[in-house]
Amino acid sequence: MFEFITDEEERGQVGIGTLIVFIAMVLVAAIAAGVLINTAGFLQSKSQETGQQSSKQVSNRLQEVVTVGQVSGSEVTAVNVTVTQAPGAGEIDLENATINWIGPSGTETLTHNSSGADGWEFTTVAVKNTDDSNTVLNDADDRFNINFDLGASNGPGNLQEGQSVTIKINTMAGATTSIRFTVPESLGQKTAVEL
Hints:
Layout: H1 7-59, E1 62-72, E2 75-85, E3 92-93, E4 98-103, E5 106-112, E6 121-128, E7 136-137, E8 143-149, E9 159-160, E10 164-170, E11 176-182, E12 192-194
Parallel strand pairs: 5-6
Antiparallel strand pairs: 1-2, 1-12, 2-8, 2-9, 3-7, 4-5, 4-10, 6-8, 10-11
């Protein structure tokens, strides 16, 4: 006749509902944790890559040893810049470098003569080379001359006494070395002069 619902049946239904909500919360938390872990891994790899690139831009630089001008009459007709690796630098290929020449007749952007580009170019000659590479500085003892023929076709022309030039050598890693030199006020009877 009369049907009685006991407290145990109601508690069972409430318990199943609570269990379903609990499982749903655990699944949502697991998915959120997976997304956070993936994002953290991605950000870590990007920051390492950025750090390595920044380090190369700072460390893979050239260092000037000496700059010499070839003199004819009262003009400098060619400039030779001897360079080596800066402390802590890795391998630097001068064939892939670009040089900005900022002088009295304007600004020029030069590439290595092996690049095949039109216009004024620079050449390199090994002074001291620990291996057979023609353009690569890969040892702290390596020394290369970067040569600028000022009278070449498309060149800026010879430098006069007292004129100043700034060159900026940009390596493939993005590091820039800036070198500024001034032609002495009197060249006299010299055939070469340190700039």
